[in-house]
Amino acid sequence: MNNMEGFFFPRTATGQSSLIPSPPWSYSGDLLTVEYRTDPERVAELLPEPLELAQEDPGAVALIWADWQSCSSSREELLDPVRSQYKEAFVVVRCAFEGVTYSRCVYIWVDKDFAFARGMHQGYPKKFGSMWQTRPHPFGQAAPQVAAGGVFGATLAAGDRRLAQAVLTLREESPHNGFVNGHPMAHHRVYPGIAKGSPDAYAELISSGASSFEAGPAWTGDVELELFESPTEELHRLPVREVIGGYYRQVGVVWDGGATLATAGAAGWESAR
Amino acid sequence: MNNMEGFFFPRTATGQSSLIPSPPWSYSGDLLTVEYRTDPERVAELLPEPLELAQEDPGAVALIWADWQSCSSSREELLDPVRSQYKEAFVVVRCAFEGVTYSRCVYIWVDKDFAFARGMHQGYPKKFGSMWQTRPHPFGQAAPQVAAGGVFGATLAAGDRRLAQAVLTLREESPHNGFVNGHPMAHHRVYPGIAKGSPDAYAELISSGASSFEAGPAWTGDVELELFESPTEELHRLPVREVIGGYYRQVGVVWDGGATLATAGAAGWESAR
Amino acid sequence: MNNMEGFFFPRTATGQSSLIPSPPWSYSGDLLTVEYRTDPERVAELLPEPLELAQEDPGAVALIWADWQSCSSSREELLDPVRSQYKEAFVVVRCAFEGVTYSRCVYIWVDKDFAFARGMHQGYPKKFGSMWQTRPHPFGQAAPQVAAGGVFGATLAAGDRRLAQAVLTLREESPHNGFVNGHPMAHHRVYPGIAKGSPDAYAELISSGASSFEAGPAWTGDVELELFESPTEELHRLPVREVIGGYYRQVGVVWDGGATLATAGAAGWESAR
Amino acid sequence: MNNMEGFFFPRTATGQSSLIPSPPWSYSGDLLTVEYRTDPERVAELLPEPLELAQEDPGAVALIWADWQSCSSSREELLDPVRSQYKEAFVVVRCAFEGVTYSRCVYIWVDKDFAFARGMHQGYPKKFGSMWQTRPHPFGQAAPQVAAGGVFGATLAAGDRRLAQAVLTLREESPHNGFVNGHPMAHHRVYPGIAKGSPDAYAELISSGASSFEAGPAWTGDVELELFESPTEELHRLPVREVIGGYYRQVGVVWDGGATLATAGAAGWESAR
After folding, report:
1. Per the count of CB atoms within 10 A, which of A90, C83, C107, C196 is most buried?
2. C92-119 pLDDT, tens per residue?
3. pLDDT category of residue A51 using cuts at 50, 70 and 90
4. pTM tops 0.95, yes or no
5. Mind listing the pLDDT tens digit for each residue in A63-103?
6. How many Å apart are CA C47 and CA C55, to the nearest integer?
């Protein structure tokens, strides 16, 4: 679309209307992570070609709640925070492509349109949901601290049904915030064909990760997790066989683009390398 | 994405999670349309290549509110209506491609994720908004009828700012429901490139329209329309120079796919014909 | 509060800010009713003094969904319908006071603040919820008609948990729309005392009903109803022992005040008669 | 209502359904305050009998945004934070009763039903709104710190219209967080009569304040404030004649009941002292 401005739709003469501005996109927020093991074949069935199951601990899953404030390089969204704050919950597994291990988001729910659009760009399969997670605060009258004994709840709902809930009680600092979401992401970006019954018009496998990352100490503790069924969701197809751990961490992140790993052509997937 | 089910993301082994099912998509709803003339150069600046300004009445704009119930061919969404009902407001202009006149949605706001995703597929540049329109009802204690003297209000807001409001007083039946939204749609479907600063990874011009359409009598009447400024919107760049008319109509529609008009390649736009 | 204007808070010099205007309040809307029998002792435990269990069919319960458009006598809300449209679901039982049978709303959820405030005035124990019910429409592409074979779904959620869902398939016209909600309402209006641990500062038993009422034909049919548990709700304490029937009806109603039945004084309840 | 449990409606056999539990109510949150002077007669017109205008600086107004997490003494809401987190914006003036200066909330908007009900109990004239305020975060990628140079935005909307917006740039610590909201509150608790046209069934003037209070350092800085008109609000009737200051402070508060100052009887207001 030459002669138009705007990173995303709607593109216009000025670009002012674009639902999202160009990267870099910056984020400050709190992550509550629950890692567990499910049946590896249930992870495998979520990995389309050309991806394969990760070799180590292939049934590991991370369910992550995030409470974000975000902005573009103008930082103007921070002064009109309806455009800046959002919450999300997402499910991450690992996979392999050409011998390299990647993380991959298989389900994700957000509560703002700009987050939906950023996810579409990055290959996150976003839906709308209602997510809540306990916030730490310096004054404990109605808040935990990020410290031993701090108790954090987190809930996820979509379509007026609760899908998941967790309670994490912090015990001690941890050298890490979990391992399932620790690799670059390998995501598909797909546009279904416009003609009835046609194949995808576009399909690409991309990788991306933070261009910069800062974080406070990670905390771990005891965690309880419940998943619920819904006719429109499949989170319950990743049942909890064994809880690995629960983690809490405050982070600052910048995202500034990704790279194509492979594209789908007439002869199947072609590596971009 | 072979070996996966689901029309849209997230694709899975069963397809149950897909944010939207395959077309056909069916709709029953009420349309409140306001047509007016703006400066044709403001319409022109919203038409990317390879589109051109329509020859007749090139400054005509339709601002349309719609109160929808929708479903897939299973009709199961109708029994869980949080997945079926949504509201939208959209701005339509006309354009020309290869000598044929098309309608084109340049701005649109919806209030459900499934509507957002359907719009992405169809090339509607959807954002989230808050739309309200007066509903007719058989009992007039707190409702107009679709009849002479019926008064209908409609409002549009996004980002906690009101963007537009209209009041339509029905006067008489009309042979039509306006003309701006009366052609097949010509929409771009675009995927920005994943690498920082890269060109679009995919760009396509498609046309689509209803595969079947039923409607009650169209009504016309007197209409007042106000547009408001917002830092994230450009509706006010299509100022009202002259009101053409206001219309109300109840419709039933099926959408079942579109057709590629042109694709963007290395050498520019190539017609698909 | 002399020298101030406004029916409800906030009261001001002009009254313009009042969350709700003075009655009469008018309503046009659609009612989907499910009636069933539960254990009469569970109804009895919801009836505070000076109310008693109804003599006939004391375990009868009505769960009613309503999709409303409402306005004051100025009708100005109809032109700014964010102030006019709301949805609700409510649970009604019957009771007796001084030998007369009354209906009584024991639980109710709405989705707008003006509806919450009207309920507080009328003694409806309102909370916020998310209610959806299938809408009839003249064009059946994605809608039933109010006619034999029409299928309507209805759902209720609060606190991001689903509380109830029903599916009603219309079979034939019915001479009535159910009987549980057919009496004047007997509701308590209570203001807890402001001092810690103090008794209620004010408590009154009132009756009220529509000052005028119009309705289309009532339809009945086959109905399925499911209730779900929640830590903040007690709907599941009224379990479905036997479904009585399901009904659908379009109505127009005016409410214009009620009457005091009894007030709580130092010596207990005193009848107002 | 003897033989029933529950602090607020709906009262039941167990009390589990009560929209709010008994005090004490605890709060942890962040306050962004803008103080300004308006025309004193506009403050006076918001003070019903038996209140009078404060003697010093009678035109002072505080517009306060608050981002809260709250809970009852069980703290169970903190683990299901949809029941714990809410946002509000409120307008405070000062007044005098029997020679004592009080603060008084004249307008307030919240976004959760439990906050609405607590406000009704405390005499806050709550409506629903959409409030957003920039959050501080340890990592500054998309967040300010509570420190010199920190920039915080705050917005208020109701009925799909923006009512107010402010930007505060912190400069230095301040010995206080403003003075307008610094007194015990003097609020009316009113129940309109149920019979058409009848006087209030109940009216009481109460005072209340925090039973305990902790706070971090207060910060002050430069502030911009804009107020907008709305047909359902009167915030614009308190125009900004002179900005006094802007403040930011993190606090922890407990509320545990208030006291009656006066009650309205047949002969007018009677002091409770």
Report:
1. C107
2. 999 999 999 999 999 999 999 999 999 9
3. very high
4. yes
5. 999 999 999 999 999 999 999 999 999 999 999 999 999 99
6. 14
pLDDT at residue D143 above 90? Answer: yes
Token code pair at residue D51: 């209140």
Among the CATH numbers 3.30.390.80, 2.40.400.10, 3.30.300.30, 2.130.10.10, which is that of B25-179+216-249? 2.40.400.10
Contacts of D160 in chain B (CB under 8 A): 130, 132, 155, 157, 160, 162
Contact A134, A154 (CB under 8 A): yes
Question: Which residues make Cβ contacts (< 8 Å) with residue A31, sequence separation at least 6?
Answer: A64, A65, A66, A177, A247, A248, A249, A250, A251
The region that residue B222 occupies, defined by phi over 0 for left and psi between -120 and 50 for alpha, beta otherwise, is beta
What pLDDT, on a 0 to 100 scale, did the predictor assign at position A1? Answer: 57
The rounded percent of chain A whose pLDDT value lies above 90 is 97
Domains in chain B: boundaries: 25-179+216-249
Note the pLDDT of residue B3: 77
Is the CB of residue C211 less than 8 Å away from at least one CB of chain B?
A: no
Alpha carbon of residue A70 to chain centroid: 14
Q: Do B81 and C153 touch (CB under 8 A)?
A: yes
3-state secondary structure of D262: strand
Contact A76, B28 (CB under 8 A): no
C-alpha dihedral (A211, A216, A220, A224), degrees to nearest 10: -70
Percent of chain D with pLDDT over 70: 99
pLDDT tens across C23-75, in order? Answer: 999 999 999 999 999 999 999 999 999 999 999 999 999 999 999 999 999 99
Helices and strands: H and E segment counts in chain A: 2, 14
Structure tokens at D54: 């404060």
pLDDT band at C265 (very low <50, low <70, confident <90, very high): confident
State how far the Cα of C39 lies from the Cα of C236, in Å rounded to an integer: 12
Contact B185, B122 (CB under 8 A): yes
Q: Does B141 touch chain C (CB under 8 A)?
A: yes
C93 close to D (CB below 8 A): no
Asked if D4 reaches chain A (Cβ–Cβ under 8 Å), the answer is no
CA distance D114 to D107: 17
Q: Residue B219: phi, psi to the nearest 5?
A: -115, 145
Task: Select from C72, C79, C152, C211 the residue whose CB has the most chain B CBs within 10 Å, as the one to mutate to test that interface.
Answer: C79
Of C88, C87, C83, C81, the C-alpha closest to C105 is C88
Q: Using CA of residue C44, residue C47, residue C52, residue C55, what is the dihedral sign?
A: negative
Nearest Cα of chain A lies from the Cα of C55 at a distance, in angstroms, of 37
Q: CA–CA separation, B126 vs A1, rounded Å?
A: 17
The shortest CB-CB distance from B192 to any of A45, A121, A192 is to A121
- Token output for B26: 């069916």
Average pLDDT over residues D106-133: 98
Question: CA-to-CA distance for A62 and A78, rounded, in angstroms?
Answer: 29
Regions in chain B scoring below 70 on pLDDT: 1-2
D1: closest CA of chain C, how far (Å): 6
List the one residue out of A227, A207, A219 whose CA is nearest residue A176.
Answer: A219
Measured distance CA(A72)–CA(D141) in Å, rounded: 10
